[in-house]
Amino acid sequence: MSSRETVLNRIRRALADVPVTEVPRDVPVDRCYLRRHGERTDEQSAELLAENLADYRAVVHRCTDAELPSRIASLLAAHGSRTVVAPAGAPARWLSESTGVERVPEDVTAHQLDTVDSVLTGCAVAIAETGTVVLDASPDQGRRRITLVPDHHICVVRVPEQVVDSVPEALERLSPQRPLTWISGPSATSDIELDRVEGVHGPRELEVVLVTS
User: Fold this and answer.
1) Where in this chain does the entry annotate a coiled-coil region (predicted)?
2) CB 50 within 8 Å of CB 212
3) CA-CA distance, 149 to 13, in Å (whole number)?
4) How many CA atoms lie within 13 A of 171 on its CB side?
5) Rounded CA gap, 5 and 109, in Å?
6) What HEC string does the chain produce?
7) Are the beta carbons of 57 and 186 closer than 8 angstroms?
């Protein structure tokens, strides 16, 4: 018996007493699990998010909204970026102080995208307990591929509006009909020797800017 047949047989046995006319919405689901672990202020949630992002080897920055253009300019300069892809919905002011850096539209070819130095996006939501940033292809985030090809990703997160404590709270804000990209640190994998390799299927460098009003 193949592994596939073994799994399917187990599923059939588990469903043996389920009426064929039953549909998922007919069965109430007990959702008594904790939606979050403890109570936090907005600032404590932001601090936890920063701590967990850093634990995943993302680089975290804090600034005000007024300081954001200069902070982005300094990050691009530090990376030596001459080109940056930014989705159409990303505010023009984000790059207003990035002199000498060419803004590349998101609808370039895959070959052209591979030559871009950095990508700049917003986010849909950021999860403090897991250090995860979620993108949902909204106008300020663009198509999924732009955050998977360039080696350097700058992601803007607004605090406290876009920060939640837990995954259940994040799911309440997200639509399953949108293409979701969940990012916990730079792209990385490990081989059987546990040697970490970054940049395998996404950016080698993730910089998250937590922006307050």
Assistant:
1) none
2) no
3) 44
4) 5
5) 42
6) CCHHHHHHHHHHHHCCCCCCCCCHHHCCCCCCCCCCCCCCCHHHHHHHHHHHHHHCCCEEEEEECCCHHHHHHHHHHHHCCCEEECCCCCCHHHHCCCCCCEEECCCCCHHHHCCCCEEEECCCEEECCCCEEEECCCCCCCCHHHHCCCCEEEEEEECCCCEECCHHHHHHHCCCCCCCEEECCCCEEECCCCCEEECCCCCCEEEEEEEEC
7) yes
Under 8 Å between Cβ of 86 and 103:
yes
With 70 as the cut, is the pLDDT of residue 25 above it?
A: yes
**Which residue is associated with the tokens 């080897």?**
57
Of 99, 46, 112, which is closest to residue 72 (Cα–Cα)? 99
Query: What strand order describes the sheet that includes 83-85?
Result: 59-64, 205-212, 152-158, 118-121, 83-85, 102-104
Contact present, 87 and 106 (Cβ < 8 Å): yes
Which is more confidently placed, 78 or 213? 78
Is the CATH code 3.40.50.10420 the one for domain 40-212? yes
* Main-chain dihedrals φ then ψ at residue 5, nearest 5 degrees: -65, -40
By the 8 A CB rule, do 139 and 193 touch? Answer: no
**Is residue 190's pLDDT more than 70?**
no
- The confidence score (pLDDT) of residue 201 equals 65
* pLDDT value for 96: 97
Question: How many angstroms separate the CA atoms of 173 and 168, rounded?
Answer: 9
